[in-house]
Write a structure and sequence with these properties.
By secondary structure, the protein is mainly alpha-helical. Helices cover 62% and strands 4% of the residues. Among the domains are: 130 residues, no CATH class; 120 residues. A 5-stranded mixed beta sheet has the order 2-1-3-5-4, with helices on both faces.
């Protein structure tokens, strides 16, 4: 046996002190029994919170219809617009998964949701095995896995058609395999190493933030002085991502993600771009506060109500304490502690450059990692003051005091699952059904949530231009050849800031053909010819819309 192999074997985590004098009634709680417990808890929780309805965030409709386009052989295209242009909002990873399910099992939204649930369960089981290997403490891995199963954010995303859970699954799978092969003498000869490349790029194809995973793997290999492996991994990532780059180049599609870095507020484009160092630093500080100081606490303790609109000295202090414990725990993890540090830092780096206003959403795929590091950090700190081996064994169960609070927080998710849609959305759907029956095929509609409207109304649908200049908004409707406009009360501020003022300033251009009450929702016939005449006969600079 070579020296390297001896060294690797010697470095393997052992639980000698942990297993010594283990109480008899815990001695038979082995890995398989804990697996069964986790599966049982998942079934109980998932049946409790399962939501068969579409979520109203809009993006899940986008994923669903993009998947349908692929499954029907129309390619990765947008069905809402004339000529079905190439899709560019999201990478194709999750729509391809949806397309495979639709192709194999037929069109079933419930089945697609169940798939996300199974990927959630798979993520938890991988997390259990990974934490066990990284810490050498089976009970800690079991307790953390239970807490993650009860996490209301993870539970909610496991029952809606969003990409967070599939991304989490492939990320965890990549890291689990990485932990297996990192100590091998010749990993480049192992099929598992190349599987890491495939699963990692799949994660990247599902969510662009997966770039943090690719970068962290390469940095980890470089710091481990595995230059050959780093080169192979880099080449593999580039080779597998090249088809998507070529496709976007052919269609002239530029990444929207890079541009968002320099936008002050993507929902209020009139606020302009980040143009000064002060603006840029303010954005970073605000996003760091939202993501790291508040978001991390929110995801670890989802039963605590976090106010993202206000700050307090106590809240900031608590955020920094949690952050310290997380990084302390990451350092104490064996074998791939460097990778965990890189992964946390690169994720933070990407997210604080992104835009805020989404609460803990972007932190949710990090839940297993920050939970591992946080609870292991607490565990190691408590271990300093714990002298008894028996106490050392029982320490992980201390975290189970959080279980009642976690379960109680799931009531919110169950209520959401069992409730019907709000009146504003029911009216929105009725407006869509009216247009489906009463508008000609090929009609073009303007609405705040095009993909949601498209579910009930198979017409071409655009959003309105986000501008407070009513002249530009009207001209955009003309350029898009819009026939109908839906004026809703879904609660999005953009409708009241942009669309409604433009309609009020130009009432002759919008004729109500349907009014739904409680709350008022309108379908308006757009006077294209009148708008064109006004545009052609007046200079836009002279305000032709008094």
């Amino acid at each position: 046996m070579s020296n390297k192999r001896k060294k690797a074997k010697k470095g393997k985590i052992k639980n000698i002190s942990y297993n010594k004098n283990k109480p008899f009634y815990f001695s038979n709680i082995n890995k398989y029994f804990k697996f069964l417990v986790l599966i049982f808890v998942f079934i109980a929780i998932y049946s409790y919170i399962f939501d068969s309805k579409f979520d109203l965030n809009g993006d899940n409709f986008v994923y669903y219809f993009l998947g349908k386009q692929i499954a029907s052989g129309k390619g990765y295209t947008v069905p809402l617009q004339p000529d079905n242009p190439p899709a560019k909002k999201f990478p194709p990873g999750y729509p391809v998964i949806i397309a495979l399910v639709l192709k194999l099992f037929g069109d079933s939204v419930v089945l697609l949701k169940v798939l996300n649930g199974l990927l959630f369960l798979g993520s938890i089981l991988i997390t259990f095995l990974l934490i066990k290997e990284l810490t050498g403490i089976p009970n800690l891995s079991f307790v953390i896995s239970i807490l993650l199963l009860l996490n209301k954010f993870l539970c909610r995303f496991s029952t809606i058609l969003m990409s967070e859970i599939p991304y989490l699954f492939f990320t965890l799978l990549s890291i689990f395999i990485l932990n297996k092969v990192v100590t091998e003498e010749r990993p480049e000869r192992s099929k598992q190493f190349y599987l890491i490349i495939v699963t990692s790029i799949l994660a990247f194809y599902i969510r662009p933030v997966g770039l943090s995973l690719l970068v962290s793997i390469i940095l980890f290999l470089l710091f481990k002085k595995r230059l050959k492996l780093a080169v192979i991994a880099s080449a593999g990532f580039l080779l597998l991502y090249l088809p998507w780059m070529i496709r976007n180049f052919i269609f002239g599609i530029k990444s929207r993600y890079f541009n968002v870095i320099f936008i002050s507020n993507p929902w209020r484009p009139e606020t302009g771009k980040v143009s000064t160092i002060t603006d840029f630093l303010n954005k970073i500080v605000n996003n760091f506060n939202e993501i790291a100081l508040k978001g991390f606490i929110d995801v670890i303790f989802p039963f605590i109500k976090i106010n993202y609109n206000t700050n307090s000295a106590l809240g900031i202090l608590a955020g920094f304490i949690v952050l310290f414990v997380i990084f302390y725990g990451a350092i104490k993890v064996k074998k791939i502690n460097l990778f965990l540090l890189f992964y946390l830092i690169t994720n933070l780096g990407i997210l604080i450059l992104w835009h805020g206003g989404n609460g803990p959403r972007y932190v949710i795929p990090l839940a297993p990692f920050i939970s591992l590091c946080f609870y292991f950090g607490i565990f190691k700190l408590l271990q300093i003051v714990t002298t008894s081996n028996k106490q050392f064994y029982y320490l992980p169960f201390l975290f189970l005091i959080l279980v009642p609070f976690m379960i109680n927080s799931l009531k919110e998710i169950r209520l959401q699952a069992k409730s019907s849609y709000p009146p504003s959305y029911r009216n929105y759907f009725l407006a869509a059904q009216y247009l489906e029956k009463n508008s000609p095929k090929g009609a073009i509609i303007c609405a705040r949530k095009p993909w949601i409207l498209y579910f009930y109304c198979k017409r071409y649908i655009y959003n309105y231009l986000f501008t407070s200049d009513d002249k530009k908004l009207i001209k955009d409707l003309v350029d898009k050849d819009v026939d109908y406009v839906v004026l809703d009360q879904l609660g999005y501020s953009s409708t009241y800031i942009y669309l409604l003022p433009a309609i009020k300033k130009n009432p002759t251009l919008f004729k109500p053909v349907l009014r739904l009450q409680n709350p008022d929702t309108y379908v308006l016939l757009f006077n294209k010819s009148g708008a064109k005449n006004l545009i052609n006969s007046n200079s836009l600079n002279k305000n032709p819309f008094p």
